[in-house]
Amino acid sequence: MSVPFEALSSPQVSVNRHLRTPDDCDLFLGIFNCRFGTPLPGREFRKLDGTPYQSGSEYEFHRAWEARRRGASRPEILMYRRQQELPTCQDNEQLKKLEAFFQQPPFMENDQWTGAVDRYQSLDEFARKVEGHLRRLLSQRQPASLPRFRDWLNNQASLLTANAGPRYTSDAHVETNISQAFDWLLVRQPAIAKLDKALSEVWKHLDRDDAFSVIRADMEQIADALRADMYWQTTPDFPFMLGTLARAEAHAWAEHEMHERAKEQEARNDTWRYREHSLRQAAYMAGEASDLLRNYWSLSQQRVMLLTGPAGQGKTHTLVHEVNQILAAEGIALGVLGQTLSTADTLWDAICRRAGWLGTHDQLLNKLENEAANRNQRALLVMDALNETPDRRRWRNELAGMIQEVLLRPHLALAISVRTDYLKQTLPLLPDGMDAPWVKWEHPGFSGIEPDALLRYFEHHGVKAPVAPPLGEFGNPLYVQLLARSMRGHPLQHWLPSWLEVWRAWMVRLEEDSKDRLSLDNASRPEVMRRTMSKLAQAMLEDGHFNLLRNQADDISREMTGIDGVIAFLCSSGALIDRLENDEDVVEFGFERLSDTFLADRLLAKLFEGKVSKEEKLVVLRTALAPGGDLHPLASSDYVDHPLYFRRAGLLEALCLAVPQCTGAELPTLLPNNDADFRDWELSQAFCDSLRWRCRPEEFGMDGKALRDLWRRYSDRSNPASELDEIIRFALIPGHPFAMEQAIHPRLLAQETPGARDAMWSVNLVPLWRDEHSNLRQLVIWARDANLHDAHADIALPAARLLAWICATSQKGLRLAAMKGLTRLLAACPRVMEAFLPDFLGVNDAYVLEAVLVAVWGVVQDGSDAQAGTLAARQV
Fold first, then answer.
1. Which has more confidence, 643 or 765?
2. pLDDT in tens, 324-363
3. Is the CB of residue 757 less than 8 Å from the CB of residue 802?
4. For all residues of the chain together, what is the average pLDDT?
5. Neighbours of 863 (CB within 10 A)
6. How far is it, in rounded angstroms, from Cα 547 to Cα 570?
7. Does the pLDDT of residue 511 top 80, yes or no?
8. 454 falls in which pLDDT band (50, 70, 90)?
9. Rounded distance, CA 483 to CA 209, Å?
10. Is the pLDDT confidence value at 593 over 70?
C-alpha cells in the first residue's frame, strides 16, 4: 500500500498519519540486510533519553518495544537479519549503524545476548521461515473465529446494559461526584488536571522569601516529577506530596500568626494586607489540595474500588454507566453482574463463560492489559452486585486471589460492588492488622444533588416534582424512580410517602399500564398484575433460588391472566428482568428491594392464612420466628446454608416494614434473641433503616416513646451529633412518631433556659453544619437557595420550626443562613404562620425570637399574601 508523502512533513510523519503505528499492531516484523536507514529529524522524533533516531526503522522498532516495556502483550516482535558469508555490503557507515543497533538492548547487554534475532542466508530461506512463523502465530490467534476486540467489548456492554434492566436508566442519568472517584481510579485527565490546578494554586500563593525556600524546592520537585510522567504511568509519590502540603499549610499559618503580631492595627498598610492575604490563601490552598489527595489518591494507587451502599442507591447504574461511557470514549472496559454468574465454575471461569470469552481468564486479563497499555490508559474491569451471585460465599474464598491477579497488570483497575448489609457475608475475612486490598467507597446516591435528580427523574416520567428539602429517601435513586412512576396520573398524598405506599401506588400504575398494553380489563380477574407478581414471588420462595426459569414464569403468568406476553410486559416495565443462566432463560425481580418486599409479603401471607385478628397473627409470627419455626433462619444468623439466609438482611428490613401493620408489634420485639446483651448487626441495620421508610400511624407497632427507646437501643449512639441529625431527618416526615410536632419542637419549647437548650441542641448544630452531607445542612441550604414556589404546608410548617430552632446557634454563618431560609420559606407559604408564630413569640431565646421577627418582617415586605401578612403583623 503506497503512502501519500506530504511536501511539508517528513516521510515518517506521513507514514504515521496514514498507517497504524507499530504499537497499535498485533505483529512487528523487522527485516534487515545491509542498510539501517536515514536519520529522522531531531526536532520531531527523539528517544526517551533525548537522542535522535538513526533511522525510521529504529523509530518504528522503538514504538513497538516501548509498548511491550509498558506492560502490553502486543505487538509480537520478530527480527530477521541476513547472514552473509562474504562482506557484500558496500556502505560501511550503514553497516556500522546496523551492528551498533543489534549490540544494544534489548538484543545485547553487557556483551550477553538478552534478545533474539533470526538469521537467514537466502531469500528462499527467509520466505520459508517467515511463512512458518506466521502460520504458527495465526494458528494460536485464530482471528477468523473471533470478532474484533472492540466489537466484542461493545457487545458485552450491550449485554451488561440489558442484564441491568431498570437498574440502569440512561435516559434519566444525573451526574454525581462519584464520577470523580472513577477519574482517580482510572487516572483520567480530569483527575490529573484537578490535582495540577490544586498544586498550582498553592504555588501561586507561596511567598518568594527565604521562609518558604525549602517548601518551594519540594514543590518544584513534585512539578518536575509530574511533568516527566504526565499520564501517571508510574503512580506519583502521593505521600511526599501530602507531607509537603502539610508543611506548607502549617508554615503558612505560623507565618500568618507572626505577621499578625508584627505591626499594630493602625500601621497595617497595603503591603501588610497583601502579605496577610497571600499567607492566608497559601494555607487555605494547601489545606484544600491536601483534602483532595487524602480523599482520592488511594484509588489511584490501589486500583481496586469497593463500591458499597444500601439497596437502590444506584451502584449498578453507576458501574454500567461508567462502562458505557469509557467505551464511547474509545477506552477499554468490561463488566459483569453477579446474579448472571453460574455456580458450576470458579468465579473467573464463570466470568469468562458469561462474557463468551473462549480463552483462559489469564488471556482475558492480558488482552485487557495490552489494549490499555497501547492507549496509555487504564482499563476498567467491573464486577457488580457480588452479594447477588448464586452462593455469594464463593467470593470469600476467591476474591483475594482474583484481586492479586488483576494487580499484577499495571494498566488494569477493578471496581466491585456489594450492598452494605451483605459485606460480612460476601467479602474475604482479613487477618488482624492486614490492610484491605480495596478502597471502600460509599455510593452517595443523589446526596447533594437531590433537587436536580428529582427534577430530572420526574420530568422524565412526566410528573411534577414536589417542592421539598433533599432529605430522607430522596437521596435513594430507586425510591425516586418508583415514586415518579407511581405518581403518573395520581396525586401525591404528601411530600414523602412511605415505601409501602410507593410500592402499592406503583402496583396500581402497573395494573393500569397492563390494561392499556395487554388489554387486561377483565372484571373476573381483579388486580391481576399484583396477583401474578405475588404468585411469581411464591414460586421463587419455594424454589429457593429467588429466580425462575422463563418458561416456568410464562406458565404462571398464563395461568393467572389467561394470555401470553405478560412476562415480556413485566420485563419491559422494569418489574422483572430476564437473563441467561447456564444457557437457560431465567427471570427475577428488577430491584432487590422490590424483590424483598414481594417475598416478605408472600412469607407473611402464607403464615397468616386463615388468621384475621392482629393477636392471632402475632402469636403465629412469634412461633414461626422461634427455634424450629419456618422463619427462624431469619431470626438467627446461624443458618448460613438455608435459602432464606441468602436474603436475610433485605428480608429483615422488608419484614420490619410489613409486620407492624399486620400484628401491631415491631419485629425486633418478636425475635427470640431479644435481650440487651445480644447485638444482631443485620437486624439493627434493618430496623433503623425501616424507620426512614415509614410515615403512616398504622405502619408503627408501638407509641412514640416506646419506639424511641427501641430505636436508641438498636442505633449507633456513639456520636450525639449524628444521632441528632437522624432525628432531624425523622422530624420532617409527615405522620412519623418522631415528627417535628411530636419530638423536637415540644422538647425544645419545654426547656426553661437557653443554657439547658444549648446543652441538648445548639452545641451539636455546628458540626452538622460543617458536614456537607448532613440533613441539617441540606435543609438550611434548600430553604436558603432553592425555588420554594408551591411549597406545601405539610413541609413548610415543620421545616420553618426547625429553621427557627437552628437560629439558636451562636455560629454566625449558620444562624444567618437559617434566618434567610426561614424568611424565604414563610414568604413562599405564608398560610403556615398562624400555626407557626404563637409558640415562638414568647420563646425564651433572643436569637430565635430575632430570627422569627425578621422573617415576619420579610413576609410583610414581600406582600404576595396581604391577608397572611396582616394576620402575622397582628400576632406580633
1. 765
2. 999 999 999 999 998 888 776 789 999 998 888 888 898 8
3. no
4. 85
5. 9
6. 14
7. yes
8. confident
9. 60
10. yes
Is the confidence at residue 685, as pLDDT, over 70?
yes
Sign of CA dihedral 656, 658, 660, 662: negative
Pick from 683, 682, 691, 668: nearest CA to 621: 668
Strand partners, 212: none
What pLDDT does 489 receive?
65
Long-range pairs for 551-554: beta carbons < 8 A, 24 or more residues apart = 551/585, 553/587
* Partner residues linked to 77 by β-bridges: 28
| SS3 (DSSP) at 488 | coil
Beta partners for residue 379, in sequence order:
412
**Number of CB atoms found within 10 A of residue 795's CB:** 24
Q: What is the pLDDT of residue 583?
A: 65
pLDDT higher than 70, residue 240: yes
Q: Residue 45: is its pLDDT beyond 50?
A: yes
Q: Which of 677, 678, 654 is nearest to 667 (CA)?
A: 654
604, 659 in Cβ contact below 8 A? yes
Which cell numbers in the block locate residue 782?
A: 434548600
For residue 77, give the 3-state DSSP assignment. Answer: strand
Helices first, then strands: H and E counts in the chain: 38, 13
Residue 599, pLDDT score: 93
Taken in order 349, 354, 359, 361, the sign of the CA dihedral is negative
| Omega prior to 106 cis, within 30 of 0 | yes
Name the band, by pLDDT with cuts 50, 70 and 90, for residue 143. Answer: very low
Cα 229 to Cα 222: distance, rounded to the nearest angstrom: 11
**Grid cell for residue 490:** 395520581
Q: What is the distance between the alpha carbons of residues 309 and 440, in angstroms, rounded to a whole number?
A: 10
Could you give the CA distance from residue 395 to residue 103 in angstroms, rounded to a whole number? 50
Interval 804-813: pLDDT, tens: 999 999 999 9
Task: Spell out a b/e string for 68-87, using b for 16 or more CB atoms within 10 Å of the CB, else e.
Answer: bebbbbbbbbbbbbbeeeee
**Cell 520531531 found at:** 44
CA 71 → CA 30, 159, 373, 410, 688, distances in Å?
21, 29, 6, 7, 49
Question: 681: which residues sit within 8 A by CB, 6+ positions away?
Answer: 424
User: Which residue, chain included where needed, has cell 425462575?
Assistant: 548
Angle at 43 between CA 41 and CA 48, to 5 degrees: 95
What is the C-alpha to C-alpha distance for residues 67 and 350, in angstroms, rounded to an integer? 31
Whole-angstrom distance, CA of residue 511 vs CA of residue 503 = 12
Which grid coordinates are listed for 547? 429466580
User: Is residue 713's pLDDT more than 80?
Assistant: yes
Residue 163 identity (one-letter amino acid): N
Residues with Cβ within 8 Å of 643's Cβ and at least 6 positions away in sequence, in order, are 544, 545, 546
CA distance linking residue 391 with residue 403, whole number of Å: 19
DSSP 495: S
Confidence of residue 868 (pLDDT cuts 50, 70, 90): low
Q: Which residue has the higher pLDDT, 719 or 435?
A: 435
What is the DSSP pairing of strand 76-82 with strand 108-109?
unpaired
Tell which phi-psi region holds residue 309, choosing left (phi > 0), alpha (psi between -120 and 50) or beta.
left
DSSP 327-366: HHTT--EEEEEGGG--SSS-HHHHHHHHHT--S-HHHHHH
337 within 8 A of 386, measured Cβ to Cβ = no
- List the beta bridge partners of residue 336: 383
- Minimum mean pLDDT among 37-41, 408-412, 709-713: which range? 37-41
pTM, entire model: 0.65
The percent of the chain in helix, strand and coil, each rounded to the nearest 5, is: 60, 5, 35
